[in-house]
C-alpha cells in the first residue's frame, strides 16, 4: 500500500484549554456532600467502637452485633455464646466491624463515591483530577477491591444477625420505638446487601444462557431491580444503621427514657 | 420567541486556538447544533463541526457544551437561560483537527483490537436459536451509537494521555462485555479484558454512564459485570479451586 | 500540490449498508478493496432506518415465502419495478439476514428463538426482522464489525490490518476517471486536511445513498447530496425513475429544528392512529380502489386487527407510504391540520405508557429529547418528509453493473428495484442483497479484465482544478444557493406536482447552475464545510434537473410521483421508464425507454383481477395466453 493518512505532527495535539473544567454548574456540590456524609460516618464509627453502652435489653446496638466475646454483656451475646473467650478485652465491636466495614469499603458504589470525593479521581465528570499519574485498580492495594464478594458473603451473615436482633426485640418489646428502628434498619441493611453487584453476578450474572436457568434468572431479575437502587440503599442503610446504633446507646445511657423508648 | 444568545466557540487548528465570541440568533425549539449551523451560514462559513443525522442516532456531533460532553443535536437551547454565555469546545481527550472536529482514530484502533464475534464452527447461518432473555443484555450495549463521549469523559485517558496505550475505554470494554455475554460467542475474553484492554484501570466512577446519550448503563451492566467475570477467572480462590477439582474429576 | 495515490482492485464509494456489504463481498472474493465515505466509519445514513429488514423467513407466519414478498414489492412499486431485481431481492433476503446473525447481529427473537418479524405497511405477513426500532444501527454496526473481523483476519495472515480492506473515512469523491469507455479511477479529497487523493482502480461500486438534501423538509442527512447519481451521470451512465421520490408520511413537524426527522412506521404498526384537527381518523376516507378489499373499512375492524390478524383486515393507517403521505397532505391543505401544519399521530390513547416505552423506545427517546414531547401522554404532530429516491443508476439486476464498464451501483443510488414506490423494510434488505451482488459483480469484472485501465494525467489535472476552484473564488455564499435549490425543489417538485410549477423549477435550476459555477468558499482547505458544500452543489443541481425533467414528462400519478394535472395511473405509462443521461455534465436529457415484460412464471403469480388494474388491454391479452398455457 502506498501510504496511510498523512500525519502532520501538529494534529496529535488536543485543544489547548487552560482551565480544569469549563463546567458552569455546581459540580463540586455532590462530592462535597459525599465527603461530609462519609466522614460523619467514619467519625461516628470510631466513637461507637469505644463507647461501651451498646446494650439495653432487648436492644443491641448494630455496631456491636454480633457480640462474640465473654466481655460482652450477658444478654448481648449471640445465642448466649461467647466463642472468642475471655482473653479478648478490647471493645467487642472491633471484632466484627471489619466485615460490614469491608463490605462497604469494597462496594462498587462506595468506591465510586470515595474515589470521587476523597481521592478526587475525578472529583466530577469532565473535571480534571489533580493527580499526575493514575493506575486504577490494577495493582496493590486497590487490586484487593476484587475480594468484594467475600465481604458480601460475610455481610449476608451480619445482615441475618441484625434481622435476628430485630426479631428478638420484636418478641420482647413489640411496642418499643427502638424495636421498630431496629426492624427498619435490618430491612434496609439486608436490602442493601442483596442489591450488591457481586450478588447480582452470583445469582445469574455470570451465566450466558438465562433461559436454561429460569430460577436463577428470576433471582437475577429481582436483584437487578434492587441493584438499580444500590446507591440510594447504600445511603439509606448507612444512615439507618447510624441512627439505630445511636438510639440504642442513648437508651442504654438513659438519656432517652420514655415508656415506649 | 427569538433572542440573541452569547456563544463562545473554540476555534483553531491542531491544538492551537482559542475561544471566540459570537452573538447569534436563537429561535424556539432549536438545539445547539442549529446554532452552530447558523454561525456557519452567517458568520463563520469555515467553522468545522461534525454532524450527520441530527436526531441523536449517529453519534457524530459530540462536543463539550459548558464543559459537559454532549451531542450538539440533543442539547436543546431551552435548557439554558437567555442571558447565559454558552461555551462550546471540542472533545478534550482526542487531538483536535479543527474547531469542534477531533481526531477520533484512537477509538477505531481500539475497536480493531477486540477480537470479533466468534461463533461455534458448526452453526450455520439460519440455525441460530436464541431466547429473547438471553440476548437482551448484549442488545442494550448494541444500542451504542459510537459518539465516543464515554471514552472522552473517562478520566483514565482524559487526564492521563499515557494510559491510552493500555486502556480501551468504556466503549470497547462494553463491547467485550457484549461479546462475552453473547449466547453463541465461544472466544475467551475475560483474561484479555484485564490484561490487554485495561479493565483494571476503571475505578467505576460512572462518568461514562452519566454522559451516555443512549442511556446505556455502561458501568452497572457492562463494566462491573465484566469485572466480576474477571474476578471469577483471576481472583476468586474458591472458583479456582472448584475449577481445579472439577477439571481433575473430568480428566 | 502533491496528490496522494492509491491502487485498489475495487473502490466502494459510500459506507452505508450497501457499500459495506459490497466491500465485504469484494474482499471475501480476494479483491483489494477500499471503502471511501464522507462521514466517519459507522455513521452512514443507514443508522436512521428504524423499522426492520424485510425478508420472507416465515418465522412468525409460516405462510410467508419469496413469492408473497415478490408480489408485495411489485404491488407497492405499482408494477413499475425491475421485476428481476424484485425477484432476486425476495429470494435472497432471508439468506442475507441470517448471514448477519452469524456476524454477530442480535435481532429480537420469537418465542422459539428464531428472528422475530414485525408487520409493516404493504407487507402481507409479519416480515421485518428488527431490533426494537433501531434496526439500521444494528445492520450498520454488524457490517462494520464484519469489516473489522476481515481486517483482523488479514492482520493474522499478512501482519497488516489494511492489507486487503481499508476505510478512507471523511473522504469525498468528486470525479470518476475513465480510460476510454472503462472506469480507471476515482478522484477526491480528504475532508479533514483538504489534501487531494486519487484511487487507481478498474472497478467502482457506487453506494452513496440518496438525494434528499435537495429538499427543505427531509429525513436525510447532509451526506445525501446525490453524489453517486451525479458521478454516474458524469461518467456516462444512465439514471432511471428519477421522478419517483418517496415522501415518508410521518416526519416530525415540530420543533422547526427537527422538521423532517422520521417517526417510524412501527408507531402505526403497533397501534398508532392518524387524526385530523377534528379528531377524525381520516385514513378511512383515503383507501384507493386497488386496495379496497385489503384494508378495514371501519374503526372497529381496524382495531381488531392488532390482536387478530387472521380474521380482520388491517387498518388504513398501514397503507403504502405514498397513499398515507398524500392523505396527510390533502387533510392539511383542506385546513384540518394540526397547529404546526401536520396531523396528529396518536399512540398515547391506544397503548399503556409502559408498553409504548417497551415497543418504541427510540421514538419515545427522540420525542422526549428533541421536542420535549412525551408520546405516552400526548399525540405527535407529523407530516410528509422527503425520504427516499426510488430512482437511480440503471443497473443490471444480477451484477449491479451500470452501462459504463467497471461501474457498479447498489442500494438507494441504484434504480429499478422499488419501481415507483418502496415498501418500508425493503431498503435494508435491498442494501444487503444488491450490495453483495454489486461487490461480487465488481470482483468478477476485475477478474475478467485483460489489462488494467490507466488513469490519464490530463483527467487528474482537470479533476484537481475542478475540486480546488471554489477555494480560489470570492463568489457567492454556497449556503444561499443551497437554500434556494431546496426551496425550489420542495415547493415546485415536491409531493404534488403540476406541469407549470415543474417548468418553473427547471428555469430556476438553470439559473442556479450558473450561480453554482461562481460560488466561493473562504478559509483554508482544512475541514472547510463551505468548500465541501460548494462541491456538493454541482451534484445536487444536476440530480435536481433529472428529477424535474422526468417529473415533467411523466403525465400520470404513480407511487412517488403525483401529478395534480394527471391524477390517475395510466397502464400505458407503466410500460415506460424515463432514462436520464448527460452528454457533458452541463445539462441532462431524459428519454423514454420501454420496460421489459415480466417473465411468465412471475406474472402468473398474480391474480388476473389485480393485474387488470395495472396493465393495458394488450398486456392482459398476452397474460391470458400465458395463463392458458400453464
- Could you list the spans of chain A in which at least 5 consecutive residues all have pLDDT below 50? 1-10
**What's the mean pLDDT score of chain B?**
94
Low-confidence stretches of chain B: none
Main interface: chain pair and counts: B-C, 63 and 67 residues
Q: Supply the CATH superfamily name of the largest domain in chain B.
A: Alpha-helical ferredoxin
Amount of helix of chain A: 40-55%
Quote the distance from N terminus to C terminus of chain A: 84 Å
- Between the first and last Cα atoms of chain B, what is the distance in angstroms? 77 Å
The CATH architecture assignment of the largest domain in chain B turns out to be Orthogonal Bundle
Structural class of chain A: mainly alpha
How would you describe this protein?
Chain A: The chain crosses the membrane at residues 27-50, 87-110, 150-171, 177-196. Chain A: Keywords: Membrane, Transmembrane, Transmembrane helix. Chain A: This is Integral membrane protein. Chain C: Residues 9-428 form the FAD-dependent oxidoreductase 2 FAD-binding domain. The complex is a heterotrimer of chains A (261), B (251) and C (630). Chain A has 261 residues and is mostly helical. Chain A has one domain (27-252). Chain A is built from 8 helices and 2 strands, in the order αββααααααα. Chain A has a two-stranded antiparallel sheet. In chain A, a hairpin with a 2-residue loop joins strand 1 and strand 2 (59-60). The longest helix of chain A has 25 residues, at 148-172. Chain B has 2 domains: 3-102, Beta-grasp domain (Ubiquitin-like (UB roll), Roll); 105-250, Orthogonal Bundle (Fumarate Reductase Iron-sulfur Protein, Chain B, domain 2), CATH 1.10.1060. In chain B, 37% of the residues lie in helices and 16% in strands. Chain B contains 10 helices and 7 strands. The termini of chain B are far apart. In chain B, 62% of the residues are buried. In chain C, 38% of the residues lie in helices and 16% in strands. In chain C, strand 20 (576-581) and strand 21 (589-594) form a beta hairpin. The chains are: A mainly alpha (261), B alpha+beta (251), C alpha/beta (630).
Amino acid at each position: 500500500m502506498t501510504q496511510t493518512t498523512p500525519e502532520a505532527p501538529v494534529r496529535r495535539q488536543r485543544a489547548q484549554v487552560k482551565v480544569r473544567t469549563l463546567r458552569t454548574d455546581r459540580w463540586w456540590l455532590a462530592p462535597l456532600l459525599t465527603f461530609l456524609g462519609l466522614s460523619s460516618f467514619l467519625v461516628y464509627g470510631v466513637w461507637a467502637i469505644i463507647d461501651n453502652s451498646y446494650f439495653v435489653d432487648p436492644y443491641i446496638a448494630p455496631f456491636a452485633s454480633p457480640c462474640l466475646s465473654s466481655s460482652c454483656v450477658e444478654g448481648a451475646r449471640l445465642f448466649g455464646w461467647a466463642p472468642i473467650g475471655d482473653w479478648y478485652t478490647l471493645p467487642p465491636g472491633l471484632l466484627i466491624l471489619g466485615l460490614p466495614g469491608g463490605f462497604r469499603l469494597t462496594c462498587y458504589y462506595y468506591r465510586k463515591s470515595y474515589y470521587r470525593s476523597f481521592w478526587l479521581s475525578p472529583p466530577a465528570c469532565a473535571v480534571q483530577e489533580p493527580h499526575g499519574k493514575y493506575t486504577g485498580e490494577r495493582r496493590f492495594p486497590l487490586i484487593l477491591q476484587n475480594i468484594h464478594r467475600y465481604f458480601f458473603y460475610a455481610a449476608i451473615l451480619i445482615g441475618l444477625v441484625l434481622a435476628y436482633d430485630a426479631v428478638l426485640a420484636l418478641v420482647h418489646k413489640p411496642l418499643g420505638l427502638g424495636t421498630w428502628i431496629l426492624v427498619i434498619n435490618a430491612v434496609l441493611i439486608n436490602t442493601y446487601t442483596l442489591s450488591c453487584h457481586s450478588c447480582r453476578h452470583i445469582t445469574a450474572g455470570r451465566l450466558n444462557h438465562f433461559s436454561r436457568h429460569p430460577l436463577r434468572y428470576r433471582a437475577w431479575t429481582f436483584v437487578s431491580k434492587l441493584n438499580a437502587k444500590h446507591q440510594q440503599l447504600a445511603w439509606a442503610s448507612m444512615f439507618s444503621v447510624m441512627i439505630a446504633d445511636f438510639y440504642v446507646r442513648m437508651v442504654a445511657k438513659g438519656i432517652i427514657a420514655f415508656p415506649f423508648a | 420567541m427569538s433572542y440573541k444568545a452569547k456563544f463562545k466557540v473554540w476555534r483553531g487548528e491542531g491544538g492551537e486556538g482559542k475561544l471566540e465570541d459570537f452573538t447569534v440568533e436563537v429561535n424556539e425549539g432549536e438545539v445547539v447544533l442549529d446554532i452552530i449551523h447558523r454561525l456557519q451560514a452567517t458568520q463563520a462559513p469555515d467553522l468545522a463541526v461534525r454532524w450527520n443525522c441530527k436526531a441523536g442516532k449517529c453519534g457524530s456531533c459530540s462536543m463539550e457544551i459548558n464543559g459537559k460532553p454532549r451531542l450538539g443535536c440533543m442539547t436543546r437551547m431551552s435548557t439554558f437561560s437567555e442571558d447565559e454565555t454558552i461555551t462550546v469546545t471540542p472533545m478534550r481527550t482526542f487531538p483536535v483537527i479543527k474547531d469542534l472536529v477531533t481526531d477520533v482514530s484512537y477509538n477505531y484502533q481500539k475497536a480493531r483490537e477486540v477480537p470479533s464475534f466468534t461463533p461455534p464452527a458448526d452453526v450455520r447461518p439460519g440455525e441460530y436459536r436464541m431466547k429473547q432473555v438471553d440476548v437482551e443484555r448484549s442488545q442494550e450495549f448494541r444500542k451504542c451509537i459510537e459518539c465516543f463521549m464515554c471514552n472522552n469523559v473517562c478520566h483514565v485517558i482524559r487526564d492521563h494521555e499515557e494510559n491510552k496505550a493500555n486502556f480501551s475505554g468504556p466503549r470497547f470494554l462494553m463491547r467485550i462485555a457484549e461479546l462475552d455475554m453473547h449466547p453463541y460467542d465461544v472466544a475467551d475474553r475475560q483474561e484479555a479484558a484485564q490484561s490487554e484492554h485495561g479493565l483494571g484501570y476503571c475505578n467505576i466512577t460512572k462518568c461514562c454512564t452519566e454522559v451516555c446519550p443512549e442511556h446505556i448503563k455502561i458501568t452497572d451492566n457492562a463494566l462491573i459485570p465484566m469485572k466480576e467475570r474477571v474476578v471469577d477467572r483471576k481472583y476468586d480462590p474458591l472458583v479456582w479451586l472448584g475449577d481445579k477439582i472439577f477439571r481433575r474429576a473430568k480428566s | 500540490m502533491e496528490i496522494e495515490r492509491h491502487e485498489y482492485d475495487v473502490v466502494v464509494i459510500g459506507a452505508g449498508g450497501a457499500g459495506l456489504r459490497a466491500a465485504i463481498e469484494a474482499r471475501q472474493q480476494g479483491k483489494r478493496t477500499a471503502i471511501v465515505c464522507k462521514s466517519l466509519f459507522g455513521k452512514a445514513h443507514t443508522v436512521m432506518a428504524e423499522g426492520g429488514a424485510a425478508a420472507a423467513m416465515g418465522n412468525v407466519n409460516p405462510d410467508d415465502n419469496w413469492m408473497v414478498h415478490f408480489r408485495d414489492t411489485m404491488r407497492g412499486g405499482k408494477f413499475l419495478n425491475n421485476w428481476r431485481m424484485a425477484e432476486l431481492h425476495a429470494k435472497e433476503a432471508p439468506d442475507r439476514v441470517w448471514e448477519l446473525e452469524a456476524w454477530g447481529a442480535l435481532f429480537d427473537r420469537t418465542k422459539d428463538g428464531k428472528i422475530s418479524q414485525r408487520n409493516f405497511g404493504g407487507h402481507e405477513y409479519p416480515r421485518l426482522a428488527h431490533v426494537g426500532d433501531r434496526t439500521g444501527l444494528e445492520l450498520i454496526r454488524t457490517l462494520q464489525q464484519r469489516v473489522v473481523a476481515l481486517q483482523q483476519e488479514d492482520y493474522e495472515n499478512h501482519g497488516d490490518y489494511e492489507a486487503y480492506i481499508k476505510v478512507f473515512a471523511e473522504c469525498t469523491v468528486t470525479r470518476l476517471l475513465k480510460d476510454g469507455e472503462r472506469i480507471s479511477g476515482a478522484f477526491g479529497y480528504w475532508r479533514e486536511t483538504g489534501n487531494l487523493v486519487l484511487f487507481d482502480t478498474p472497478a467502482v461500486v457506487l453506494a452513496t445513498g440518496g438525494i434528499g438534501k435537495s429538499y427543505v423538509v427531509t429525513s436525510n442527512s447532509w451526506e445525501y447530496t446525490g453524489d453517486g447519481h451525479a458521478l454516474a451521470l458524469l461518467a456516462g451512465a444512465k439514471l432511471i425513475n428519477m421522478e419517483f421520490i418517496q415522501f415518508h408520511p410521518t416526519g416530525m413537524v415540530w420543533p422547526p429544528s427537527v422538521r423532517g426527522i422520521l417517526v417510524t412506521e412501527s408507531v402505526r404498526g403497533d397501534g398508532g392512529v392518524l387524526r385530523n384537527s377534528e379528531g377524525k381518523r381520516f385514513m378511512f376516507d383515503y383507501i384507493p380502489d386497488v386496495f379496497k378489499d385489503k384494508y378495514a373499512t371501519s374503526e372497529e375492524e381496524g382495531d381488531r386487527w392488532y390482536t387478530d390478524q387472521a380474521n380482520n383486515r388491517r387498518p388504513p393507517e398501514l397503507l403504502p407510504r405514498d397513499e398515507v403521505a398524500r392523505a396527510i397532505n390533502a387533510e392539511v391543505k383542506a385546513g384540518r391540520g394540526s397547529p404546526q401544519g401536520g396531523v396528529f399521530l396518536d399512540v398515547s390513547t391506544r397503548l399503556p405508557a409502559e408498553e409504548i416505552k417497551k415497543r418504541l423506545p427510540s421514538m419515545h427517546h427522540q420525542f422526549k429529547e428533541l421536542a420535549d414531547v412525551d408520546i405516552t401522554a400526548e399525540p405527535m404532530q407529523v407530516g410528509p418528509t422527503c425520504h427516499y429516491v426510488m430512482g437511480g443508476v440503471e443497473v443490471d439486476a444480477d451484477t449491479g453493473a451500470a452501462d459504463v464498464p467497471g461501474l457498479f451501483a447498489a442500494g438507494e443510488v441504484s434504480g429499478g428495484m422499488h419501481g415507483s414506490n418502496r415498501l418500508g423494510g425493503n431498503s435494508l434488505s435491498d442494501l444487503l442483497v444488491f450490495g453483495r451482488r454489486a461487490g461480487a459483480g465488481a470482483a468478477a469484472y476485475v477478474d475478467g479484465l485483460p489489462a488494467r485501465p490507466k488513469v490519464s494525467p490530463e483527467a487528474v489535472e482537470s479533476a484537481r482544478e475542478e475540486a480546488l476552484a471554489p477555494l480560489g473564488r470570492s463568489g457567492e455564499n454556497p449556503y444561499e444557493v443551497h437554500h434556494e435549490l431546496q426551496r425550489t425543489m420542495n415547493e415546485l417538485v415536491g409531493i404534488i406536482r403540476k406541469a407549470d410549477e415543474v417548468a418553473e423549477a427547471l428555469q430556476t435550476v438553470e439559473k442556479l447552475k450558473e450561480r453554482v459555477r461562481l460560488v466561493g468558499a473562504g478559509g483554508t482547505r482544512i475541514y472547510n464545510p463551505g468548500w465541501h458544500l460548494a462541491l456538493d452543489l454541482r451534484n445536487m443541481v444536476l440530480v435536481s434537473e433529472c428529477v424535474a425533467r422526468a417529473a415533467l414528462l411523466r403525465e400520470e400519478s404513480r407511487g412517488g410521483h403525483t401529478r395534480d394535472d394527471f391524477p390517475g395511473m395510466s397502464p400505458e405509462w407503466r410500460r415506460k421508464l424515463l432514462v436520464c443521461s448527460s452528454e457533458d455534465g452541463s445539462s441532462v436529457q431524459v428519454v423514454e425507454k420501454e420496460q421489459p415484460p415480466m417473465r411468465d412464471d412471475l406474472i402468473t403469480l398474480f391474480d388476473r383481477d389485480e393485474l387488470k388494474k395495472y396493465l393495458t388491454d394488450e398486456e392482459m391479452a398476452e397474460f391470458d395466453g400465458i395463463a392458458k398455457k400453464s
